[in-house]
Write a structure and sequence with these properties.
Elements: H1 2-27, H2 31-56, H3 59-84
Helix pairs in contact: 1-2, 2-3
Length: 90
Amino acid sequence: MIVEAFLPIFIFIIALASSLALVRAILGPTAPDRVVAVDAFISLTIATFVLLGAFYNQVIYLDVALIYSVFAFISTVAVSKYLEGRELHD
């Protein structure tokens, strides 16, 4: 299968991008930069779960990725509203 052949390359690319996102999250000059960097890191983590699901032929990895993406979306919206200065129920 193609995923099995290219999995080390995909993992290396995701690890490199994740490390760059973490550097931006730590060194980001503003809070919105940090939020975007953390969101990028979460997206790369979700991509890792999808790759693992394809590699091991297990649906549970896709379920975890789906739940993780829902929590990531909710937390990103909450932090964005907080940074904007609005209440969460608005």
